[in-house]
Amino acid sequence: MCGIVGYIGEEQAAPFLLSGLEKLEYRGYDSAGLCLNDNGELVVKKAKGKLKELKTLTDDGKNLHGTIGIGHTRWATHGEPSDVNAHPHLSTSGRFAVVHNGIIENYLILKEKLTEKGMVFQSNTDTEVIAQLFEYYYQGSLMDTVIKVLSKLDGSYALGVLSRDNPDEIIAVRKESPLIIGLGNGENYIASDIPAILSKTRTIYRLENDEIAVIRRDGVQIYNLDKEPVHKEPEHIEWDVDAAEKGGYEHFMFKEIMEQPKALRDTLHPHIQDGRVVLDEIHLTAEQIRSFRKINILACGSAYHVGVVAKYVFEKVLRIPVEADLASEFRYRDPIVDDKTLTIVISQSGETADTKEAMKEAKRRGSHVIAIVNVLGSAIAKEAHDVIYTLAGPEIAVATTKAYSTQLAVIYLMAIYFGDLLGKISDTEYKCYLRELQMIPDKIQQILDNSEQMQYLASQLFHAGDVFFIGRNIDYALSLEGSLKLKEISYIHSEAYAAGELKHGTISLIENGTLVIALATHEELIGKIVSNIQEVQARGAYVLCLTTEKHQELKSVAQSTVFIPQTCDMMLPSLAVVPLQLFAYYVAALKGCDIDKPRNLAKSVTVE
Ligand code: G6P
Questions:
Q1: pLDDT at 125
Q2: Residue 606 pLDDT more than 80?
Q3: Contact (CB, 8 A) for 490 and 588
Q4: How far is the CA of 474 from the centre of ligand 1 (A)?
Q5: In Å, how far are 128, 376, 548 from 183, measured between CA atoms?
Q6: CA 398 / ligand 1 centre spacing (Å)
Q7: Domain residues for 364?
Q8: 228, 244, 260: which is the final residue of a domain?
């Protein structure tokens, strides 16, 4: 949800700012802009559209001068994508420039007040009020002004601020939205996320809520709202720079699909020792675990879809009622949660605003929270009682693939671990589940090695206007993800339906040639889904069926059939999701879509 970058040093700032923004485009890409202090003037250049528009406008940064600057890539919340709504925003006299990630909830009241005081607004954004507030309250001390301005803001923000009168400082502050500070030699940086500064440094500070950082060429000082210095230990980032590069692939999404076997091995490896599941991150006694009456899973988007799979898995293995809840719904429905409820939150970024707030709500009600998170040190990871990291590495493509798969792997680890502790699975089952789980990465590799089949099917079917994904039980949970993957990157309308529910309305949409993707992996219900396939075929549907190797007979039922290797029923989504990811990818590629940055989306959604 918007990317921020900043530079202060001896070099020209613009080229670095542009390269940093390139790494942050996954956070938003409807416009971008830079502001540099060029000999005492704050010069702003901004352009609607992807970063390449700004690059063209600035001749790759060559026609913007200055060794201190801030940049922004936007995902519109207030005001449509346009040049004028793009950040940075200047105050009326041009004395302050601001880039912002987040939402200022009281901006209308502030805007009204400032307009009465004679401030002239150019944009429809909430951010511009911040720049104007700086101007309004400035009386010579930048620090006092920052504190005053922050006291007026309701909402969430990460801010980068330039002041014309303080040409050797960048101010960075945050509340709820992430911001890091990179430490260099004679130069320093700010950014919304690590990839933006990895080419320059691996030493960072993570700014916390209500901290104010003053960034100069020769150092960084951090203060609290009482102007007291805050001491922080710098953190060393171990990331491999290549992990955030495309590495020869045309798209990050394809690279990340291909990385799944490794991501899964990396995630599973630390948690399987001597034939046992080890989850030391969970600080719960066996007695506490036995006391839970319910499990609540909170997440958004694909992470929520993992939660729906988890509902089927946990209920089957643990025999505990499980609710998978959309975090945005959970927050506001006075949920029934207490200390007898275990809450699991799932988030790749660890920053999703709805998930974070839902987690806080569950905590307030006394629930113990385990977070499954990919990004180290992210807000959700910090605030949960326990955190289990997926070791998927940086995921750049907006459409998640390897994070989804590694989240599922953690769910299976938890099912085995809790199943054993609660005495719900036998020794034989324990061994069998664990053996199957360890074989998943190789089986995914097998599917990836045959990716041409999905490429071929995509070439036959990419003209589809509407697609229905159907499945029963855990296949229904998987159909949610298959459908989302296809629609978010190919813009083909698609819906996921519990196969048994089709006849209660949606079947009226099936006509000659409608594409139905039937997921038929759940052994117990193959017969039922075959009936559903026949029902839609009778109405003219073209059926692509995904099933397990042993069900060769389905070849004669569906028009096209894709086979995946066998594993235990509950783990089949780990395998079945891969052809669906590939299908979505190839369809989007054939349609010429911007696969890594689909329209209107952002990877990290830090607003409600
Ligand atoms: C966005 C992304 C989705 C993601 C969801 C939740 O909508 O486009 O791919 O599943 O956020 O993100 P999280 O980081 O919490 O997993």
A1: 94
A2: no
A3: yes
A4: 21
A5: 29, 19, 52
A6: 8
A7: 246-445
A8: 244
Distance CA 102, CA 117 (A): 25
Between CA 96 and CA 123, with CA 72 as vertex, the angle to 5 degrees is 60
Residues in the ligand 1 pocket, defined by CB under 6 Å: 300-303, 347-349, 352, 355, 398-400, 601, 603-605
Q: Is the distance from CB of 309 to CB of 478 less than 8 angstroms?
A: yes
What pLDDT score was predicted for residue 246?
78
pLDDT of residue 55: 96
Q: Which atom of ligand 1 is nearest to the CA of 375?
A: 14
Distance 480 CA to ligand 1 centre (A): 14
Give yes or no: residues 504 and 466 share one domain.
yes
CATH classification of the domain holding 470: 3.40.50.10490
Verify whether residue 603 is a known catalytic residue.
yes
Do both 312 and 413 map to the same domain?
yes
Ligand 1 atom showing the smallest separation from residue 407 Cα: 16
The CATH number covering residue 53 comes to 3.60.20.10
Amino acid symbol at 77: T
Protein residue with least CA distance to atom 3, ligand 1:
301
DSSP character at residue 146: H
C-alpha 330/C-alpha 340 separation (Å) is: 17
Query: Do the domain assignments include residue 599?
Result: no
Name the residue at shortest CA distance from atom 1 of ligand 1: 603
